[in-house]
């Protein structure tokens, strides 16, 4: 059995038998990562257009043939890269050795589970994510793939935050939400509202207003915009020391009603502050 280890989430590394693989060509390396991001395989025409912006000609086909040979040689066997029905595809043992494949496998497994088992799978998936897809490499197809995989990562973070919130496990809930907004501050103003509300109750109002002020700076400097009225109202309520959970009528009579509970989903949160969050660091927007 061939022993491969491929890292793509935060780096770009390929190992075979615990040794770094040298492809002797950036083009060969990029083809491998391109096919890794398309486990179903891609036609030669698609590959040529996406990677090289070329149409098939004798010279281009020869260049492709040389680089496919380099991939097979680097991986140690001809069967690691296959061509079936006009599509180029990596062998299952190569695909399964990548952190990218493992991430999506864990996420898909989580969808079939519930409770703590679901949460554990999602946490396992997040541990694999050490940064952007193929960090440090450039290419138009990479940017598109990077965005696609980042959206999947953000979706997992948001679900993890919600699931922890439902069990009143505040610190990991806030941390997951923070990481999502740090990764993509454009995620949505409602999520910044949620983080403000969570910080106000789980830590203190000063942390919540500190995030609000950084969010104002982000809006002004990056998109030349102003916050929505309900965000301003939420901030003023927090400054006045009013409660922030919309599911607690006694504490939030004057708060603007958010679209959804900032502490969870399905109206299921009955939040109680949990000690131990006083050391939580201030949350930067970016």
TrEMBL record:
SUPFAM superfamilies in the record, alphabetically? C-terminal effector domain of the bipartite response regulators, TPR-like
Question: Which ranges carry the Bacterial transcriptional activator domain?
Answer: 98-239
| InterPro entries attached to this UniProt entry | AfsR-DnrI-RedD_regulator, BTAD, Sig_transdc_resp-reg_C-effctor, TPR-like_helical_dom_sf, WH-like_DNA-bd_sf
Identify a single GO molecular function assigned to this protein: DNA binding
Q: Which GO terms describe its biological process?
A: regulation of DNA-templated transcription
Which SMART domains does the entry mention? BTAD
Query: What is the recorded name of this protein?
Result: Bacterial transcriptional activator domain-containing protein
Origin species? Deinococcus cellulosilyticus (strain DSM 18568 / NBRC 106333 / KACC 11606 / 5516J-15)
């Amino acid at each position: 059995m061939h022993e491969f280890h491929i890292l793509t989430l935060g780096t770009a590394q390929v190992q075979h038998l615990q040794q770094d693989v040298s492809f002797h060509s950036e083009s060969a390396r990029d083809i491998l990562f391109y096919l890794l991001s398309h486990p179903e395989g891609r036609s030669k025409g698609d590959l040529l257009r996406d990677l090289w912006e070329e149409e098939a000609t004798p010279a281009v086909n020869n260049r492709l043939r040389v680089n496919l040979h380099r991939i097979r040689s680097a991986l140690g066997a001809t069967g690691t890269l296959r061509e079936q029905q006009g599509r180029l595809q990596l062998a299952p043992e190569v695909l399964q050795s990548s952190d990218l494949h493992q991430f999506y496998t864990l996420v898909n497994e989580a969808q079939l589970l519930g409770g703590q088992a679901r949460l554990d799978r999602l946490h396992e998936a997040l541990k694999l994510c050490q940064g952007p897809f193929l960090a440090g490499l450039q290419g138009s197809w990479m940017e598109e793939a990077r965005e696609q995989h980042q959206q999947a990562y953000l979706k997992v973070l948001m679900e993890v935050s919600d699931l922890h919130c439902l069990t009143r496990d505040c610190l990991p809930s806030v941390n997951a939400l923070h990481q999502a907004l740090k990764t993509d501050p454009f995620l949505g103003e409602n999520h910044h509202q949620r983080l403000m509300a969570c910080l106000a109750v789980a830590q203190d109002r000063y942390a919540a207003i500190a995030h609000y002020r950084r969010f104002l700076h982000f809006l002004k400097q990056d998109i030349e915009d102003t916050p929505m009225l309900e965000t301003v109202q939420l901030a003023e309520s927090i400054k006045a020391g009013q409660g922030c959970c919309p599911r607690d009528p006694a504490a939030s009579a004057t708060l603007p009603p958010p679209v959804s509970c900032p502490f969870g989903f399905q109206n299921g949160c009955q939040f109680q502050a949990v000690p131990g969050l006083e050391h939580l660091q201030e949350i930067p927007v970016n």
